[in-house]
Design a protein that fits this description.
With 285 residues, the chain is an alpha+beta fold. The protein has 2 domains: 158 residues, 2-Layer Sandwich (Gyrase A, domain 2); 93 residues, Elongation Factor Tu (Ef-tu), domain 3 (Beta Barrel), CATH 2.40.30.160. It contains 5 helices and 16 strands. Strand 9 and strand 10 form a beta hairpin.
């Protein structure tokens, strides 16, 4: 289980996440036209999950999108390098009045337990003297995340691994470089996180996402698995036939994309049985 009290895991620590800021008069329209979430409907001082897709509807990056105000958007990137994302997004700026800035002067810290600043509502950003705080907790599980100024320090591998296990258990895919551009939002279950809007205007991949949703064409979806020695990219088997692939792995927690007609079957990963578990609720924003 994430942050097992029997493990020697610290209650706070640095997280190796990146931050990309979109600043300028057209920050909100630019983000609205590029990302899967309804940025225009998001209130200032709030955040939600979002993603950037290829034109074929594959997820390039998954992130928390913070609307600081009408001219400042921040992307909190757990896995995708901010510099690489900036370079790709820059091609679509054209005449938009925006600047894409990598947050080299920003640090990201996680904290487990209720001892962190909170705001009114789980999607509200809590502004404090040491930075902006997000509520990353699920039902019955308190986690806070801070984005603030400072020098980056080394992260404790045990804390980072426990944080990632909690993400996976709550249905947040963690997409390493080998998993970027491999999956559609439906395959990863981004609807559970409310990271995809079906009613906003166009964005890259929107036609594929809408068609899959309204025509009921999704044939694969996310499954939470308890595994031993799993690695991203490994096959998931049912009766010796490949029915899916591990996407994210942290310790004994894994998120896999599996054919929906085999999701309830007896599954094996790496030659060993892997138990299907329900996703923990409460991480949608």
């Amino acid at each position: 289980m994430p942050f097992n009290p029997n493990e020697a895991v610290p209650a706070a620590g640095a997280l190796p996440f990146d931050v990309l800021t979109i600043a300028g008069a057209d920050a909100v329209p630019f983000a609205q036209a590029q990302f899967t979430s309804d940025v225009a409907a998001l209130r200032d001082g709030h955040w939600h999950w979002s993603a950037w897709l290829t034109p074929k509807g594959r997820v390039i990056a998954l992130f928390a999108l913070l609307r600081i105000d009408a001219t400042t958007i921040r992307l909190l990137l757990p896995d995708h390098p901010a510099g690489a994302l900036r370079e790709r997004l820059q091609r679509f700026v054209f005449r938009s009045k925006v600047r894409l800035e990598v947050g080299t002067d920003l640090v990201v810290e996680g904290r487990v337990g209720g001892d962190f600043p909170t705001a009114d509502g789980r999607s509200a950003i809590a502004a404090a003297d040491d930075g902006d705080w997000l509520d990353l907790g699920g039902d019955g599980f308190a986690r806070g995340l801070r984005i603030g100024a400072g020098a980056r320090t080394g992260a404790d591998p045990a804390f980072v691994a426990a944080w990632q296990r909690a993400d996976i258990a709550h249905g947040l895919p963690r997409l390493g470089p080998d998993q970027s551009e491999s999956w559609t939002p439906q395959m990863l279950g981004l609807d559970r996180l409310q990271a995809v809007s079906l009613r906003k205007g166009c964005y890259p991949g929107q036609e594929i996402v809408s068609r899959t949703h309204y025509l009921g064409q999704a044939k694969r979806g996310p499954v939470r698995l308890q595994v031993e020695d799993g690695v991203p990219g490994a096959e998931v088997l049912a009766e010796d036939a490949a029915v899916g692939q591990l996407v994210s792995v942290a310790g004994d927690e894994a998120l896999a994309v599996v054919a929906l007609d085999h999701a309830a079957a007896a599954l094996r990963c790496g030659g060993r049985p892997c138990a299907a578990l329900p996703f923990l609720p409460g991480l949608a924003r």
